[in-house]
Specification:
two-stranded antiparallel sheet, about 80% helix, coiled coil
């Protein structure tokens, strides 16, 4: 339960940050509560009793909408990046296997070439 002193401090803070039916940017009930170190419910109760509804803070509302959109895009991008990373990993592994097969085939080609030269030397006599 809030004390008289708590309510007085909350009311003083609200007088600073609440005007024209809404909070001044960037204040909210939660920000006031955090600033004063009191529960948000106390701030909400006093604001509603003395000042009215929380009201809208157009700049903060815009921020919330835009940041939510950005958060969604970031989450999607993170998923795409993860998928791309997995594709690169698979491609790198496949390329390494192809490289190994090429190296093995090149070694066999050298062996066959050496054998061909030997055949030429021995049969060409």
């Amino acid at each position: 339960t809030s004390t008289v002193e708590d309510r007085r401090l909350i009311n003083m803070k609200l007088a600073e940050v609440y005007a024209d039916g809404g909070y001044v940017t960037p204040w909210t009930d939660q920000r006031v509560a955090d600033d004063l170190g009191v529960p948000r419910a106390w701030v909400t109760e006093i604001r509603e009793g003395f000042y009215g509804p929380e009201g809208s803070n157009p700049l903060f509302d815009k921020y919330l909408v835009e940041s939510a959109g950005i958060a969604l895009h970031l989450a999607q991008l993170a998923e795409e990046r993860k998928a791309a990373g997995e594709m690169v990993k698979r491609a790198t592994e496949a390329a390494a296997k192809v490289r190994t097969r090429c190296d093995e085939l090149e070694a066999k080609v050298r062996d066959v070439q050496a054998l061909g030269k030997r055949v030429e030397r021995e049969l060409g006599r």
